[in-house]
Amino acid sequence: MKLRDATLSELPEGVLRPDYDRAQLKPGIVHIGLGNFHRAHQAWYLHRLMQQGEALDWAIIGAGIRPYDSTMREKLLAQDCLTTLIELAPSCSSAEVIGSMIDYLPIEDGNRPLIERMAQPDIRIVAMTVTEGGYFIDPATKGFDPTHPDIAHDSNNPDIPRTAFGAIVAALRLRRENGIGPFTCQCCDNLQGNGDVLRQTVVSLARLSDPALADWIDTMCSFPNSMVDSIVPATGPSELALAQQLGIDDQAPVTHENFRQWVIEDDFCAGRPDWDNVGATFTDNVHGYEAMKIRILNGGHQVISVPGEVLSIKTIADCMEHDLIRRLFTKVAENEIAPLIKPVSDMTTRGYVTLIRHRFSNPKIVDTTRRVAFDGSSRHPGFIIPSIRDGLAKGIEVEGLALVEAAWARMCEGTREDGSEIEPNDPHWVELNAKAREARGNPRAWLEMRQFYGDLADEPQFADCFVKWLSMIWGDGMEVAIASYLTP
After folding, report:
1. Is 437 found in the same domain as 345?
2. Which residues of 300-325 are buried (b: 16+ CB within 10 A; e: fewer)?
């Protein structure tokens, strides 16, 4: 059965569907970056509100900025922007069709359709999921990087921007000129202080071409920090087959684990849906939640995926089945990461480590090791290196974290231990690969990448451990190195 509005009443028994009249929905949100995570997370929360008869004037209009987004646009428009969510618990599965998205804007050079839609007064939130590495951050200073070619283009051509941030600035310029007022800019990516990061990017870009507009945006718009969490694999043939087995012809289904969390700072300049009525948490302590999640879950993903890639282990669940990698995660998380984190009101740090260990081990979630290890040049500085710095400052052991960094250097050499090739898996792969090859004979060469490591090469407690582990990995193999770390 082709998934469309007209066929919702014919969905197989047991598949939940929208109870609201989608024809009556009115837009309130533009979301840039319609990947699987957004549709399984933010769109789901809004859908559940609509199931209760709430937030019917907050429907989502999807948007993209790159040519490859056109493929997703075509798939979703062909099925009236409906998505089948398939929840995969360890012992069972369930399915639900969500309908909170009602349109997907055309993707054009210069982003005119996106700019004009964001400039309309009914849009009160512009949200985005564009990956951690998409915010034009200088990895050394953590400040805005104005030297990127796309940023240079947008500052010189503010009416025909290439980036999502340039489009936001152009739309806010129109709103200011037309007396419409600001909207909330909402980041839903895995960045610590993600709202602050988004503010930095948008305001800094605006300042390059229009300082007065930059001041207006900084004063009038809000950029709430938030923490988002759910494991959502990419969609491939097996996920398409799961939808087919349900009796649904969905060209863009999404599988996800049986866990979601959304913690949000309540700072919305133009109103918001009551997401807390369906399980989201509004709090002034977003940083506490996100520190726990980013350091243990996102950092933990790197702890297991990088050695897993070198050892030719296909999925995260398979990594957790590997005795050495599972024990590596537990020891590093409990001894070297958790002691650096303050617990939040409803979760201890050790309890959170246990929760993440169970989530990573869910065999129904086919989350590939390669996907999780992608973009290490953003993820290691964001998820691992802060724990190394804090550990050194507080006198906590960093030997396991040094092993993880050595494993990353080994992975970036581009071959697995079985001799197979690791295809380029990072925007900076050429540089990483060259340094990794040099580091095989001179391990300290890897730490010379100060844009990632800063002065850590000058910290003997970390650097000496790194040299030891990378030398052992190349000399004796990944498993021997991990076993050595695990030996009391």
Report:
1. yes
2. bbbbbbbbbbbbebebbbbbbebebb
CA distances from 360 to 62, 179, 180, 390, 430 (A): 30, 49, 46, 25, 30
Residues with Cβ within 8 Å of 423's Cβ and at least 6 positions away in sequence, in order, are none
Helix axes 323-332, 299-310, angle to 10 degrees: 150
Residue 140 has pLDDT above 80, yes or no: no
pTM of the prediction? 0.87
Q: Report the number of distinct structural domains present in the chain.
A: 2
As a whole number, the mean pLDDT across the chain is 96
- With CA atoms as reference, report the closest residue to 136 among 440, 444, 427: 427
Domain boundary among 246, 262, 283: 283
**Across 117-142, average pLDDT:** 91
For 250-305, what is each residue's pLDDT tens digit? 999 999 999 999 999 999 999 999 999 999 999 999 999 999 999 999 999 999 99
Q: What are phi and psi of 55, to 5 degrees?
A: 60, 30
Task: Single out the residue in 225, 248, 283 at which a domain terminates.
Answer: 283
Give how far Cα 214 sits from Cα of 163, 169, 222, 223, 293, Å. 17, 8, 13, 14, 32
Question: Which two tokens mark 229?
Answer: 């969490």
- Report pLDDT digits (tens) over 304-329: 999 999 999 999 999 999 999 999 99
- Give the whole-angstrom CA distance, residue 118 versus residue 126: 7
**Looking at the structure, do residues 211 and 305 belong to the same domain, yes or no?**
no
Domain extent, residue 431, equals 287-486
Same domain, 291 and 156: no
253: burial class by Cβ within 10 Å (0-12, 13-18, 19+)? buried
Per-residue confidence band for 397, with pLDDT thresholds at 50, 70 and 90 = very high
Q: Give the list of residues 6+ apart from residue 236 with CB closer than 8 angstroms, or none.
A: none
Q: Are residues 408 and 433 in the same domain?
A: yes
Do the beta carbons of residue 438 and residue 414 sit within 8 Å? no
Please check whether residues 228 and 306 belong to one and the same domain: no
pLDDT-derived band at 68 (thresholds 50, 70, 90) equals confident
